[in-house]
Specification:
The protein is an alpha/beta fold and about 300 residues long. It contains ten helices and five strands.
């Protein structure tokens, strides 16, 4: 890899799991002239520059017509965006999806990660967009290492996010009692499932909110899931505006749907709705008073 200057902004889609990050990533990859990690490129997690070169040669390096569909963050089709989990696990040194202590950040080879990401952008000739779930615990450091970094943070009603996490547990793990996705450092193993997902949402949202406050609106664009569904083109334009302040405004592309129908979790409302509401109120109050766990 060459040692290159950072010429182009890097775009990161962030948010709690099940908050709409995948749909937002698909919208931005479709609506902006940016590069991104596709399902094809993701097969080359240890050699992403090679993966991007191959995607370009095969003509699948641009998302011309997304399905805007996914199954718990997984998309279908070689040109659809990919979360690139193996890449982030490797570079951020996470053997799993559990939060590490603050000292872990100093074990990450940030210089090498920076070099890889800049080479990806230079190969593509465009800014690169990512959806890095594990980076939620390192947003400020990423912005420090790559000063042109931009974040688009999507938020969804916490109740819907928590219920969707329970739905994902059942679908992927066979039971709502089995943990799924990012796991905060707080000890939650003895809590019932509906309290675990409520705490998961509150803690992860708190982590992002702290970083967003520190970084400011010049770095972090806040988007509501309902906003995205109502007017995806407006979110694309706002993201282009954000990237322009960091050195490059990508072209806005036509062809997005006028709107999306918001997803609901009606099948779980009767079973868990009230209990999730109580748990969200409890943990929101608890961490507002205590400041939450360190990390």
């Amino acid at each position: 890899l060459e040692e290159l200057p950072e010429r182009l902004p890097t775009l990161h889609v962030i948010g709690a799991p099940r908050s709409g990050t995948t749909l937002l990533f698909q919208v931005l990859a479709s609506g902006l002239d940016i590069a991104y990690v596709s399902n094809l490129t993701a097969a080359f997690s240890r050699a992403p520059v090679t993966g991007m070169r191959l995607a370009r040669k095969l003509g699948v390096d641009r998302l011309e017509a997304s399905s805007f569909g996914s199954a718990f963050g997984r998309t279908a089709g070689v040109a659809e965006p990919h979360e690139f989990g193996y890449f982030w696990n490797h570079h951020l040194r996470y053997p799993d999806l559990a939060q590490r202590p603050p000292s872990h950040e100093d074990t990450i080879d940030w210089d090498h990660l920076r070099r890889v990401m800049i080479n990806m952008a230079e190969r593509a000739g465009r800014p690169v967009g990512f959806k890095p779930m594990l980076l939620l615990w390192h947003l400020e450091r990423m912005a420090e290492v790559m000063p042109r970094t931009c974040f688009v943070w999507i938020r969804r009603e916490p109740r819907l996010t928590a219920l969707s996490l329970l739905k994902m547990r059942r679908a992927l793990r066979g039971s709502e009692r089995e943990w799924a996705s990012l796991r905060p450092a707080e000890e939650l193993g003895d809590e019932p499932p509906w309290r675990q997902v409520a705490a998961q949402v509150v803690l992860l949202e708190r982590t992002i909110a702290r970083a967003a406050t520190a970084l400011g609106p010049s770095r972090v664009l806040r988007v509501d899931y309902a906003e995205l569904c109502a007017d995806p083109a407006a979110i694309v334009r706002r993201t282009a505006d954000l990237m322009e302040t960091h050195g490059h405004r990508p072209d806005v592309r036509a062809g997005l749907p006028d709107h999306f129908d918001p997803q609901t979790n009606s099948s779980l409302e009767d079973e868990f709705g009230e209990r999730v509401d109580e748990a969200l109120a409890h943990f929101t109050s608890l961490y507002a008073e205590t400041g939450g766990p360190d990390g």
